[in-house]
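Researcher: Here's a chain I'd like modeled. Treat it as a single chain, no partners, no ligands.
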Amino acid sequence: MQTNAVRRVPRRRIMDKVDEYMGRRDYAGVERLLLYWLKEAEACRDDDGRLMVLGELIGHYRKTGDSAAARRCIESALVLLRSGERANTLDAATTLVNAATALHAFGRYEEALPLFEQAKALYGRQPDLPPELSAGLQNNMALTLVALGRYDEAFTLYRHALAILGDGDAGAPERAVTCLNMADAVAAQDGMEAGEAEIFRLLDEACALLARPGIPRDGYYAYVCEKCAPVLDGYGYFADAERLRRTAEEIYERP
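Model: Modeled as a single isolated chain. Structure tokens:
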């Protein structure tokens, strides 16, 4: 009887449950779920499952601001990526994006950029890559480039993200986030006075995108609304920010 056989954790079921908890804004539930399945993946010798769960934990700790826990998960994930055959997979690229995005969130820009670059190279080798993954990488990498003062490179990535996402409703929330990121980049590079016209154009476009009636009003949309509202507040778009916050609350309060 073989006792060291690998057993796979139910990745789709885990992600569906994460989405369910996120739809209720139950961050404690997300953490309990992911930590449980991390132990299960370790017991099952499922390193691919471990990598997936670690990537989700990194994103969770970024959202909750737990830099120490995020760092521990990043270190564990990078060890896994250096072993075996998973270093060149889509899962590896996604994990690198999660790790780099978390490092950026905690101000570790110089550490984040090489991970974004590795992920970008891996994404470039993936056939039929979902556009939202590529656009998400472009967006998050551009934020780090802005933080490092490399504005021209950042704007190239932002424009590429917008082109990838297209004009449909499905990509509208991410396009809105991209527009707000670009507004911040214009303000950082040119200042509010010199960049005023372009900044307000981008803010207006973001608000119009988020108001599209065809966008599914689900947990992800609520998360985007919460993410965008403080940015709009910062530019004096108080009514739009409040509308997004109310919408998010209504989504979260659904039974």
